[in-house]
Prior knowledge:
By secondary structure, the chain is an alpha+beta fold. The protein folds into 2 domains: 3-332 and 403-496, Growth Hormone, Chain: A (Up-down Bundle); 338-401. 70% of the residues lie in helices and 9% in strands. It has 21 helices and 5 strands. α1 (3-33) packs across α8 and α13 (235-270) packs antiparallel against α17 (404-425). This is MHS family MFS transporter. The chain crosses the membrane at residues 51-73, 85-103, 109-129, 150-173, 185-204, 240-259, 279-300, 307-327, 406-433, 454-473, 479-497.
Amino acid sequence: MSQEPQKTSIFKVIGASSLGTLIEWYDFYIFGSLATIIGAQLFPADAGASALINTLAIFAAGFIVRPFGALVFGRLGDLIGRKYTFLLTLVLMGGSTFLIGLIPSYSSIGYAAPILVLILRLVQGLALGGEYGGAATYVAEHAPDNKRGFFTSWIQTTATGGLFLSLGIIVLTKNIMGAEDFADWGWRIPFLLSILLVGVSIYIRMKMHESPMFTKLKTEGNVSKNPLKESFSRKANFKMVLLALFGATMGQGVIWYTGQFYAQSFLENTCKLDFNDSRYILLWGIAFATPFFVVFGSWSDKVGRKWIMLTGMLLGIIFYRPIYQIFLDDTDVSKVSTEQVLKSEQPVVKRISADATTDVLYTTSTRITLISGMSYTKVQTATKYESGSPDTLVTTYKDKVLAAPVFWKFVALIFFQILLVTMVYGPIAAFLVELFPTKIRYTSMSLPYHVGNGVFGGLVPFIATLIASFSGSTPLSGLWYPIGIAALSFIIGAVYLSNKKPDHGEVE
């Protein structure tokens, strides 16, 4: 009889915390999911590839400020409590997301558009820096010690769940509206919808009670007077902060953002897959892999957190380049022979521009379907001379729709990458919570988490895309960044991390 109310209570805590955190991740990720379309709205029409890189830089800026949000809101969480702090972060995140959906395009207000979006991304980053630590701490402080990995792993599903929700709403909106209207103004709808989701979450969170551990500290008068000083000026605690960063969250961060965000960017921008195909592949991969957050979180209660997380990093180090090479090989249509073509539609010729002399620039678009079932658009850009025949300058391929066997092969490869995400991410909330004493837990765990994820992990799409754009690089060159960071974190973690829960007597 006495156990049932406790079980009901913990699942209410998880539900209320997870819903708000899922919505915050949704708010944060719709920007990255729409980077190509948003780039066309925020920068001049002739910006080309630099528009995508600049947009990814704005996306990355939100990650860079997350550690500052961790310091600001972590301090508040340790001073005034977990509940009200992550209520505040939820309001800031939801308001910023809604306002991004209202920002006029470059054609209306010029460079003020990307500047305003950058400011709102910074507010988002600050808010998220305070949200995760609060939610993870709140759940962990309600959970029994022997099931902390299991219960906190439900919070871990919200990051991938937020990405899944953002992708689902984006695809649904685009399919209802049509590609042209979605690219013109419909991309704003997922941003504007977030205000409704945030309203529901605020209502639920207002009914939550403060964490029992923090309430006990407050009743006894043991709340930290200066969480920042206690977290980072005491040698033993600061050592744990550094170890958590370099031995765990740094590697976990690059595995997370490679397997989900860089994978999506690579399929769309490097492999040139159709918008829907790239999203559907990720959606299926996420759907199949998400339950494993709870599997590995629960398993870590039995065997420890360390080796589950480090194994996920090691597998990423080994398999990333072979996986992305398969993506490239299976989408390369530059060597298609006439025998492989089932149908070639009538070419569509468009005049692009003309100079003041004798030549006119044209693009010829031809939709081609192969016997295998794959289809794509072949685009040839040519200069037609008045006194001669067209001279082909550039041939590119885009909007590739995969044959069913290849599509499901890609789903399996994405699933494997997200499975690695569940290995490194499922146990990490419990791992971080257990490293630090209750009175400075919110502050201490938030900083290494958000430096590892926000700086090292969040920069993966931007840095990897930038590296791949350098002269002499290959499409796979960008992978050396996450592989290198994960390798370094694996070595540090293997040597210095303990698989046992630390004794807080040394720290307090």
